[in-house]
Amino acid sequence: MAPAKVSVPLGLQPAKAWTQPRPLGTVLIIGPWNYPLQLVLAPLVGALAAGNTAVLKPSELALATSSVLAELVPQYLDRSAVTVVEGGVDVSTDLLAQPFDHIFYTGGERVGKIVMKTAAEHLTPVTLELGGKSPAVVVGGDLKAAARRIAYGKFMNAAQTCVAPDYILTTPAAAPALALALSEAVREFYGSDPQTSGDYGRIINDHHFDRLVTLLDDGTVVAGGKYNRSERYIEPTILRDVDPASPLMQEEIFGPLLPILEVEDLDDAIRFIGERPHPLAAYLFSDRDEHLDAFTEQVQAGGIAHNVCTIQLAVPGLPFGGVGASGTGSYHGRQSFDTFSHLQPVFSKPTAVDTLRLAYPPFGALKRKLLRKLL
């Protein structure tokens, strides 16, 4: 929060200049259903640290969490600084029509466009944390280690995670062994029957369950594939023989289906990713430095991670956000403070001696020469 000194050119001396972070005002934070507590409170920390007041709109699809937030936030936070507004689409529509000073939205691309369009009516700045089809490219290294890390990042929360690996790109030679290693990793994590595991989640609602089940026909199931609608349970599922033009590959899956597609090499994988909208995250598994460098330099994504999935979010100093279709703006750590602040520039010059006389007209040859040197 402290002012930061900025140097002043000699021609403007004597004077002082600095930047001063200022609160934006009142911000609206719209949370998602997949991590309905953390993804409301985490941006709130940055908003309050920057000195703003906030309106929280939890997801109506995670009704229990929304109710708990509405009950507890007024008990523990100043009601004049933070309020919780519950409700569905109509409530969100009414909120978006208000002239907030900033809107922070976490969710899908479709609603993100609505938020951005509505905010434009008031010229309200937005932070959009969206999703996308985050690829995991496997072109080297320990396949079993890669499989464990991909399975961990993919199937936590039944794959309802915005930075979960959405699909795998690997070579024809590695694909069979990788599929087998992924199946083994699933058994290691969740047992022979993940339906009985206390560590494996369920799909949020019937709509998303039905959507995911229809996608099972877009490839050959090589592991998993079982489901139970009454429990909204879908087994961790590995698919091969997937057509890149199939519905499975058109939008973010956001569920426990993991397609494996084959590419010739890393260059082919980079081309595949580049032909599609920018993902929120991109993962490369390789033990070759030239691979890591090429992937980092040539892949445009919200974030890049080498030989891990999802855990990059646990580094507080790394900004988190998307690019292009996967979002705009970022937060986490210091970036959360900056997102909810206006970095106000301040310039201060005394009037005792008017050193600006040199800059006033009329401009003769000598004055022009001096101004060019000083400014």
UniProtKB/TrEMBL annotation:
Record: active site: E129
Chain segments annotated as transmembrane: none
Keywords carried by this UniProt record: Oxidoreductase
InterPro entries xref list: Ald_DH/histidinol_DH, Ald_DH_C, Ald_DH_CS_GLU, Ald_DH_N, Aldehyde_DH_dom, Aldehyde_DH_NAD(P)
SUPFAM superfamilies reported in the protein's UniProt record: ALDH-like
Gene3D superfamilies hit by this protein: Aldehyde Dehydrogenase, Chain A, domain 1 (3.40.605.10), Aldehyde Dehydrogenase, Chain A, domain 2 (3.40.309.10)
Source superkingdom: Bacteria
Record domain Aldehyde dehydrogenase: where: 15-344
Family under the similarity heading: Belongs to the aldehyde dehydrogenase family.
UniProt-recorded name of the protein: Aldehyde dehydrogenase domain-containing protein
Species name: Arthrobacter parietis
